[in-house]
Design a protein that fits this description.
about 425 residues, alpha/beta, Adenylosuccinate Synthetase, Chain A, domain 1, Adenylosuccinate Synthetase, subunit A, domain 2, Adenylosuccinate Synthetase, Chain A, domain 3
Length: about 425
């Protein structure tokens, strides 16, 4: 069962890119299973600093094959820009493959994403306006265009004409905008198809063969469990499933292949855009942590809201995904704090709650119940063994294990690949 799923346990931005990059040293393949270019993974290595939006974080190893799975929605121009950037900086992209079943973000998706957000006014969801949601809508409505469609120009044009007739009616009659030109979109995407042709294949067959040979495959998640379309803070969620179910259906991998499910958490909480963040810090402390942790979105540059570690939400994410271990990132961001709070329960009126509610109005009324731990107030950057961490830093990790009832397998104490402490073997 040589597959390891790497999933975000919070609201995304947990540092999954670094964790995948670190673990890919021992893997033969890294496969991205969901989301689109609304996600961003920052990776720092010998080639420099990279902000990846579609290409899996294992691309920097010569021995690793990278897969963009069927569950990902792909903006071809963004993918090609990433390929060109990587190639221009000496990274081999010949081991990158795109599922022929992956749906494509089209120009009308991007346009409608912006128009729908504007129409919501004060109730806007805070999307990245990159067309991800509308693309997933079309996938469910059986109106999508898939990567494999680009390989047959005749069939592609016929399907595109049918879809664009409907989209242009929506754009012109509902929103009063000019229609998009069929020929322009067709020619643009045919050009993308020619460039992407060498990358497009049935990636499910490749992954099955690799797993059958006993090769290690890392399933790379995007966003986080609390943004899951079914189980997140609906409607302030993403349009896909960043949870374990999405990992399997987004790649066509059997659950029997899973060896580990690693939940990635920051040592604190962050969230971009609208929606609840129960443990949100007071303004001054939030700003302090934001600047120390450079908490700005890799995709949009928007400032992230910062909060204390939310053990209620973490337990929920762990139960939902069946985490076999946790990866705690950005522990070093808390280096200077004299005291650190951890939330172990919520209080709503007279009721103390240990579970994460589905009701957004109820969640909005919840007040975190904190336990305060003393900070270590020393730099962790040079530490490479858990036993060498300051006792108070070790106590903080132990508290997270206690609250979540899940062992910590990995701790990150800095942005560099080598600034990682492995507590338990994963391979």
């Amino acid at each position: 069962m040589p597959a390891i799923a790497i999933l975000g346990g919070q609201w995304g931005d947990e540092g999954k890119g670094k964790v995948v990059d670190y673990l890919a040293q021992r893997a033969q393949a890294v496969a991205r299973f969901g989301g689109g270019s609304n996600a961003g993974h920052t990776v720092i290595n010998q080639h420099g600093e990279f902000r990846m939006h579609l290409v899996p974080s294992g691309i920097f190893y010569d021995h690793v094959t990278c897969i963009i799975g069927n569950g990902v929605v792909v903006a071809p121009q963004v993918l090609l820009e990433e390929i060109d950037l990587l190639s221009g900086r000496g990274v081999d992209t010949s081991r990158l493959f795109l599922s022929d079943r992956a749906h494509l973000v089209m120009p009308y998706h991007v346009l409608l994403d912006g128009l729908e957000e504007e129409a919501r006014g004060a109730g806007a969801l805070g999307t990245t306006r990159r067309g991800i949601g509308p693309c997933y809508v079309d996938k469910a409505a059986r109106l999508g265009i898939r990567a494999g469609d680009l390989l047959d120009r005749g069939a592609f044009r016929k399907r595109l004409a049918f879809v664009m007739e409907q989209k242009n009616l929506l754009i012109t009659r509902l929103y009063g905008r000019e229609p998009l030109p069929l020929e322009g979109v067709f020619n643009e995407y045919c050009a993308y198809g020619e460039r992407l042709r060498p990358f497009i294949r049935d990636t499910g067959l490749f992954l099955e063969a690799a797993l059958e040979r006993g090769e290690w495959v890392v399933l790379e998640g995007a966003q986080g469990a609390l943004l899951d379309l079914d189980f997140g803070t609906y409607p302030y969620v993403t349009s896909s499933s960043p949870s374990i179910g999405g990992a399997l259906t987004g790649l066509g991998v059997s659950a029997r292949r899973l060896e580990h499910v690693l939940g990635v958490f920051k040592a604190y909480s962050t969230r971009v855009g609208e929606g609840p963040l129960p443990t949100e810090m007071e303004k001054e402390m939030g700003q302090r942590v934001r600047e120390k942790g450079h908490e700005y979105g890799a995709t949009t540059g928007r400032p992230r809201r910062c909060g204390w570690f939310d053990g209620v939400a973490a337990r929920y994410a762990s139960r939902l995904n069946g985490f076999t271990g946790l990866a705690i990132t950005r522990l070093d961001v808390l280096d200077e704090l004299p005291a650190i709070k951890v939330c172990g329960a919520y209080k709503a009126g007279d009721e103390t709650m240990a579970h994460f509610p589905a009701s957004l109005p109820l969640l909005a009324r919840c007040q975190p119940v904190y336990e305060e731990l003393p900070g270590w107030q020393t730099s962790l950057g040079g530490t490479r063994r858990f036993e060498d961490l300051p006792p108070r830093a070790r106590a903080y990790i132990k508290k997270i294990e206690e609250i979540t009832s899940c062992p910590v397998a990995l701790v990150s104490v800095g942005p560099q690949r080598e600034e990682t402490i492995l507590l338990r073997p994963l391979f």
